Amino acid sequence: xxxxxxxxxxxxxxxxxxxxxxxxxxxxxxxxxxxxxxxxxxxxxxxxxxxxxxxxxxxxxxxxxxxxxxxxxxxxxxxxxxxxxxxxxxxxxxxxxxxxxxxxxxxxx
Length: 109
What we know:
- By secondary structure, the protein is mostly helical.
- The chain is built from 4 helices and 2 strands.
- It has one domain (3-108).
- The protein has helices spanning 41-55, 61-66, 69-82, 87-108, and strands at residues 12-16, 19-23.
- The chain is globular.
């Protein structure tokens, strides 16, 4: 492994309500889990579900479906915090990824 692997996030324990949960880190390849502009309600729910499944791999669909909306939002916030994801950082990453795609499209044209 290269030194770059040392930069990878480590799992973090966070408290959601009265429960301590271990959150697995998200990576750049997981950007689509929280980066869709103008997402429909159904797409938003699916993004939240997928973010939980990726962050807490042992979670089941049944457990996720039984979460209250408040718990779901608290959990999503905890996942975002554990991964140091803020609205501003997301916007910057999206703009960067779009500029790369535009450059690639311009080269292939």
